[in-house]
Amino acid sequence: MKLVSAEEAQKTGWDVILVGTSFASFFFAYKLKGKGLKVLFVERGPYVDHDRQLENRLHRPADEVAQENSSGQRKDWTVRHQFGGCSNCWWGNTPRLQPSDFELRSRYGVAQDWPVSYADIEPYMIEAEYLMDVAGSDEAGYAPRSAPFPFPPHVPSRAERRLFEAAPSWQPMPCARSNGGRRPACCVSGTCNLCPIDAKFTILNSLDLFADDGFQYLLDAECRMVETAAGRAAGIVVNTADAGPVTLRADFVGLGANPIYNSAILLRSGIGSERVGRGIHEQLGQFIWADIPFDNYYGGTSLTGMGYGLYDGDFRREAASVLIESWNAPPSLRLERGKWLRRLKLKLVAEDLPQASNRVVLKDGEPVVLWTGHSDYTYAGLARGRELLPSLIPFEHEIVRIGGFEPTEAHIVGGTPMAWDRAGGVVDRKCRVFGTPDLACLGAGVFTTGSAANPTLTLAALSLYAGELL
Amino acid sequence: MKMRRRMFLMGAAATALVAVPVSLGGTVGFLKRTLRDHFGPDVLNLDGVADFVTEFASYSAQGSPAKKLAAEVYFAWHGDQMKMIGPAAALRDRFLYTILTRSNIIAVQQQRAAQFDYGLADPWLPACGQYLSAAADETL
Fold first, then answer.
1. A51: buried, middle or exposed (CB in 10 Å: 19+, 13-18, 0-12)?
2. CA distances from A143 to A23, A128, A374 (A)
3. How far apart are CA A92 and CA A457, in angstroms?
4. CA–CA distance from A464 to each of A310, A460, B64 (Å)?
5. Each residue of A28-44: pLDDT tens digit?
6. B133, A188: Cβ pair inside 8 Å?
7. Using CA atoms, how far apart are residues A48 and A434, in angstroms rounded to an integer?
8. Which member of B38, B97, B134 has the closest CB to residue A337?
9. Could you give the count of Cα atoms lying within 13 Å of B35 in the half-sphere of its Cβ?
10. pTM tops 0.90
11. What is the pLDDT of residues A125-174, one digit of tens each?
12. Which helix (H) or strand (E) holds A221?
């Protein structure tokens, strides 16, 4: 890992600068390997290895995002200022966005279609799954796949065995929590935000996959803005603790910070359309606990199952898609003697739609999220899910508790959406900013619409796709 | 002189009021009562259960000697039976959750295992979920 100081970085003319060091930047960079390019990764946080993360896990302060929340409900935004970004703290679930997720307008008259299709991205989804050693089931066909999963699915929980047998909409949750491959096998700690044995794919534990002689890293340096000349990206300005503002020159800039900070960088730079920062959103989740007449759990990882029974159909004209998660660890226990394991822990996760009122703005040069709340569409999806869920569980059960709306799913989407033209979004189908072709936005910020599925696998695939087009 | 003697006796009584029950292990006693109430009295006769209880108790109220002392006195005088305060209920639930997930006590209770066995008792440290995971022999 070649670290470089701000002064040294300033003296070099970089072929590519990538802002941020999580999935978005690294999967883009994967396609630049072996091309003899000088690539600089710029990370605002420090490098903290896995052992030190474990030592400090109880004392690490959360990275706060400023917001003005008028929704009437608590809202949290998960960001990570650290080398590897959110790859350090994600849980490792890798369901794909489904074909319908790319075509909400044409199929259901809602929101906007993506300018790329599932078929365009699918080969890169396979590639991302192989880079992450994803474990999943080839038998559980829902969306078409062009290759099998690299590794078989984890052992399902006892309840899931019955669910999988009863209906094909219940399937193993694909994940990057190892079930074979380069990392130790998942040991079901149920603390996947920081795996004690490093079984989950992270940028840190997979750096060798992304290594290239031309790649260098500048840490503790925050990208403030992109500099342009004659309508082309010319470099970035970074703030460092030691050297103050420094200008770094590059022929191409990729912003892979996250949807909030990518938006802020564009807003500071005066680049992009009036759409920049608008429509930021994320899924809304709700836990449901049911008592069941048999012992559950004994599965092979934390989230072992998922249900597509509420995912897609004509109802999406009016109500959001919902993915059902089935949790194995940490288990929810019944503290009744002899009935400890007779519990089913599910979570409904609903997609949201971009709304112009939810947006990132700058105040005193810093990003502030103006949050007015999730859409009615989302709440309608969850209401539909709560109503129909009992019909999807093929064994006796009693729903004993429905949790409140979760303050975050840690899946921020939007702000720099992809569209066919400048009127519809901020970036084109290659993830390049309209009007500034040497500047790309990477990550879930470019999703035209969100999804009920976890975004990471798809955003990694999108970065591979965009990187190949460079 | 009388006054000084009275004060000395009162101080000694107060010290005894705190020290005696603490020396008897207030938190350990509470955890054992919790186990007995939940699993029945025989659970306390299992080899290894006492060690698990002692180890778990050593992790409660870590980093705050004052809280630790207050908890010991509260539990030693069976304060939980007079009024179960929030932190005591939380400790009870955390203890039950920890022993249920980090030992084979469910297998023992279901007579699928004869010997009690446990892993990491510190609830603040992440641990592999061997007893309720696919790695457990109990898997169907």
1. exposed
2. 23, 16, 27
3. 9
4. 30, 6, 51
5. 999 999 999 999 999 99
6. yes
7. 36
8. B38
9. 25
10. yes
11. 999 999 999 999 998 767 899 999 999 999 999 999 999 999 999 999 99
12. strand A221-229
Q: Please name every residue paired with A67 in a beta bridge, in sequence order, or none if there are none.
A: A369
Strand partners, A248: A236
How would you classify residue B33: left for phi > 0, otherwise alpha for psi between -120 and 50, otherwise beta? alpha
Residue given tokens 């219940």 in the structure block: A170
Could you give the count of Cα atoms lying within 13 Å of A428 in the half-sphere of its Cβ?
11
- pLDDT score at A467: 98
**Nearest CA to B27 among B60, B63, B50?**
B60
Segment A420-451, tens digit of pLDDT: 999 999 999 999 999 999 999 999 999 999 99
Q: Do A58 and B124 touch (CB under 8 A)?
A: yes
Spatial neighbors of B35 by CB under 8 A, at least 6 apart, are B43, B44, B49, B53, B99
Stretch A308-320: mean pLDDT: 98
Amino acid at A226: V
Domains of chain A: 2-468 (3.50.50.60)
ipTM over 0.95: no
Cβ within 8 Å, pair A187-B129:
yes
Domain ranges of chain B: 2-132
- Helix B2-24 crosses helix B26-39 at what angle (to 10 degrees)? 40
Query: Does the beta-carbon distance from B130 to A187 stay under 8 Å?
Result: yes
Q: How far apart are CA A132 and CA B140, in angstroms?
A: 29
Residues 6+ apart with CB under 8 A from A244: none
Judged by CB atoms within 8 Å, which residues 25-44 of B form the interface with A? 38-40
- Chain A CB within 8 Å of residue B135 CB: yes
Q: How many angstroms separate the CA atoms of A282 and A361, rounded?
A: 17
Amino acid B140: pLDDT: 46
**Residue A384 DSSP one-character state:** H
Q: How confident is the model at residue B67 (pLDDT cuts 50, 70, 90)?
A: confident
**Which residue of chain A comes nearest to B102, CA vs CA?**
A189
Q: Which amino acid is at A21?
A: T
For residue A330, is the peptide bond before it cis, meaning its omega torsion is within 30 degrees of 0?
yes
Other Cβ atoms closer than 10 A to B85: 13
Give the separation between CA A256 and CA A84, rounded to whole angstroms: 11
- Planar angle of CA A95, A96, A102, nearest 5 degrees: 145
Q: Is the pLDDT of residue A202 over 80?
A: yes
Residue A239: alpha-carbon gap to chain centroid: 26
Edge-first strand listing for the sheet containing A284-291: A170-172, A303-307, A322-327, A343-350, A284-291, A398-405
Tell me how far the alpha carbon of residue A60 is from its chain's centroid.
Answer: 22
Confidence of residue B78 (pLDDT cuts 50, 70, 90): confident
pLDDT for res B9: 63
Q: Which of A178, A189, A334 is the best mutation test for B, with the most CBs of B within 10 A?
A: A189
| B19 residue type, one letter | A
